[in-house]
Design a protein that fits this description.
The protein is α+β, with helices and mostly antiparallel strands and about 70 residues long. The protein is built from three helices and four strands, in the order E-H-H-E-H-E-E. The relative contact order is 0.21. The strands form two sheets. A two-stranded antiparallel ribbon has the order 1-2. It is globular and about 35 Å long.
C-alpha cells in the first residue's frame, strides 16, 4: 500500500518476522509509530523502528529479541 518504507502493523510484523504478541509488547515498550488521529490505524517507518529496536537493546538473531 505505501511501499517499502511506511508499513501498517501486519506488514511490519512480516518484515521483522515477529508474532502479534511480540508486536504488542514492543508497542507497550515504546516502539515509534505514526497516526493521523488518535483513533486511526498505526503506521510505521521501518528505518525508525529498526533504529529504535537497536537503541532499546534488542538484537536480531532469527527474530528480534532482547
Amino acid at each position: 500500500m505505501f511501499g517499502k518504507e511506511i508499513l501498517n502493523g501486519k506488514q511490519l510484523r512480516e518484515v521483522l518476522g515477529i508474532s502479534t504478541t511480540i508486536y504488542y509488547q514492543l508497542l507497550k515498550n515504546g516502539m515509534p509509530f505514526h497516526q493521523l488521529t488518535t483513533t486511526s490505524k498505526k503506521y510505521f517507518n521501518v528505518a525508525e523502528v529498526e533504529d529504535w529496536l537497536q537503541k532499546s537493546g534488542y538484537h536480531r538473531q532469527m527474530v528480534w529479541t532482547k
